[in-house]
Amino acid sequence: MLIDYDVIRSNRTSLGVTVERDGNIVVNAPLELDDLDIEKQVWKKRLWIWEKLAIKKMDQDNQVKKQFISGESFYYLGAHYRLEIVEGDAALKLKNGWFQLGSKHQKKAKECFKTWYSDHLKNKIRSRLQLFEQRLAMNVPDFRVMELGYRWGSCSKEGNLNFNWKIAMAPVGVIDYIIAHELAHLKEHTHNERFWKEVRRLMPDYTKHKEWLKCNGASLDL
User: Fold this and answer.
1) Do residue 26 and residue 123 come from a single domain?
2) pTM
3) Whether residues 53 and 133 fall in one domain
4) In this structure, what DSSP letter does residue 14 have?
């Protein structure tokens, strides 16, 4: 079985392999390491890579899709709320501990939830970014909330920040970790030692939220 991977070179001393949530394999390699040596080292890690890919596929296959009927549970900021389908064309709202949606919108309920999560996440991220500004010691750039597939966030080389609408379902601490992760990419684009040092500076207790996301991330979907 061949292993397809992307190589990112940087001023690091060792090779690191990451299996992303979407199944893409990213190899972070030293600048001076030639392609043949990279291929040999990746092949040595093949059993570990195949195991990670198998686990991710199993998580995807076992995921139960929402039916958007009364009584079904949906997460928002780490807490779960039941859905109530009400008569009429009422827009989706969170009221008295229940998500409520008019029956006329039930067929497009998934899109209603995506829009609702996106709008509320924008406000939440905007307020959380203000808490990071002093620690970051620079102006925080603008951001977008969008569909990012299996990525929780992204930071382009130009410094554009994007966040997945799905993280609106996660606890606030986890959202903070994802924000800190992308802010750290403003200074360091690869997941090297300097990158994780910057994440820790922005959020000293990030490891527990990173672990939560690793264990529960598959459930943040519709």
Assistant:
1) no
2) 0.79
3) no
4) S
Domain range enclosing 22: 6-62
User: Are both 139 and 208 inside the same structural domain?
Assistant: yes
**Interval 109-147: pLDDT, tens:** 999 999 999 999 999 999 999 888 878 877 778 899 999
Cα–Cα distances in angstroms (integers) from residue 131 to residues 136, 140, 166, 168, 204, in the given order: 9, 10, 21, 18, 14
Q: Return left, alpha or beta for 198; rule: phi > 0 is left, psi -120 to 50 is alpha, else beta.
A: alpha
Within-domain flag for 104: no
- Residue 82: pLDDT band by 50, 70, 90 thresholds? very high
Bridge-based pairing state of the strands 79-86 and 73-76: antiparallel
Q: How far is CA 108 from CA 116, 131, 167, in A?
A: 13, 36, 21
- Total domains in the fold of the chain: 2
pLDDT exceeds 80 at position 23 = no
End-to-end CA distance of the chain: 32
- Token couple for 193: 């030692």
According to DSSP, the residues that pair with 95 across neighbouring strands are 98
Position of tokens 């995921």? 63
- 125: its two tokens: 């991220």
CB 96, CB 150: distance < 8 Å: no
In this structure, are residues 195 and 186 in contact, taking their beta carbons and an 8 Å threshold?
A: no
| Cβ neighbours of residue 111 closer than 8 Å, sequence gap 6 or more | none
Residue 33 CA to residue 185 CA, distance in Å, equals: 23
Residue 88 structure tokens: 């009429």
Alpha-carbon Rg for the chain, nearest whole angstrom, is 20
